[in-house]
Each structure stands twice: as C-alpha cells, then as structure tokens.
Amino acid sequence: QVQLVESGGGLVQVGDSLRLSCAASGRPFSPYAVGWFRQAPGKERDLVARVSKGVGHTHYADSAKGRFTISRDNTKNTVSLQMNSLKPEDTAIYYCAATTRAGILTTPGMYDYWGQGTQVTVSS
Q1: C-alpha torsion 26→3→49→16, nearest 10
Q2: What is the pLDDT of residue 109?
Q3: d(C-alpha 96, C-alpha 116), whole Å
Q4: Closest C-alpha to 49, from 19, 27, 76
C-alpha cells in the first residue's frame, strides 16, 4: 500500500500563497487518483481539489476555482496544491488522500489512503 506525507502548511496572511506537497512512498503514485481535502474545526472534511490517475484530469471545489491548482509529478511521486489569494476561510487542516478507484471521487469514503494532515492558518 502507499504511504502519504503532507508538507508545506503554515501561518500566512490574507492574500498570501502556500504550496502544499503530498509525497507518496511504498508504491508508484501514478496508478492512484489523489485528492486534497480540508477540515476546519467543527466542520466536515471536504474535497478541495482532485487529480485523476493516468492523464491527470483535475477538478476543483467552487471555493478553490481560480485560486488553487493541483498538479502531479509521477516521476517524483508527488502531488502538489498551489494555493493563491488565501482567505481566512481557507484555514483548516489539509489532507492528501489516494485511491486506485476511477470515476468522480468527491467524498472521503472513496479514498483508501490518507496522510496525517498539515495545518494551514490564514490570518487577517
């Protein structure tokens, strides 16, 4: 199975950028679809962006469109989430998740492997 480790979180100001990285080990990452989720205190874990296995089609939550970009580098076994124009409402723990399933993968239950999460705090 694949192990996932997130990095790149931190404390930033409104309007700043952060780049989160999800590094996979144990197996090649290319056969896995990957999603970035986030969970704020007292809220559900929601999908932010996902990238399919294979050709790497991407999908974004409405809250992320135009500001976030998900990308994968299968040669480095990583998936990144570039976050620009950050807002206080982006504050959450961000999780990387992976699955070998295909299709429209939008809920946490569709993913089999999870990282430990990285905290993103956007201060106003």
Answers
A1: -110
A2: 96
A3: 8
A4: 19
User: How many beta carbons lie within 10 A of that of residue 15, not counting itself?
Assistant: 11
Place of tokens 């896995």: 32
Bridge pairing between strands 68-73 and 58-60: unpaired
Lookup: tokens for 77: 């076994």
DSSP readout, 70-119?
A: EEEETTTTEEEEEE-S--GGG-EEEEEEEES--S---SGGG--EE---EE
* pLDDT (tens place) for every residue of the chain, 124 residues total: 899 999 999 999 999 999 999 999 988 999 999 999 999 999 999 999 999 998 889 999 999 999 999 999 999 999 999 999 999 999 999 999 999 999 899 999 999 999 999 999 999 9
Q: Are 109 and 123 in contact (CB under 8 A)?
A: no
